[in-house]
Amino acid sequence: MTWQSLTDWWWPYLFILLAGWLPTDMWRFIGVFIGGRVREDSQALVAVRAVATALVAGVIAQLILYPSGVLADSPVILRVGAAAAGFLAYVTLGRRVIISVIVGEIVLLAGLQLTS
Known about the structure:
Layout: H1 11-34, H2 43-65, H3 76-92, H4 97-115
């Protein structure tokens, strides 16, 4: 399956939303159910948190540096700016992943509209 196999205009944006939010929150929910008795600063949870963060960072870096589909047509400065705006929203708006992903998408969509 490729970006080109799905012709709906909204599909890449839904994918970005799901790839940015779902992987991190899924592990948080699993952690609540399984890790109720595990100390928060235990080595096991530190390792899980590091792996989860590295996976999300890898996906984001791939989307910024080696995009495909509509993202490949956008300037790299726009992709970096959208990621920076999402990070800034994360830090300033209560550290909520879903809000930061939505802010990043809004910046990306606005930039795509201005550059086309």
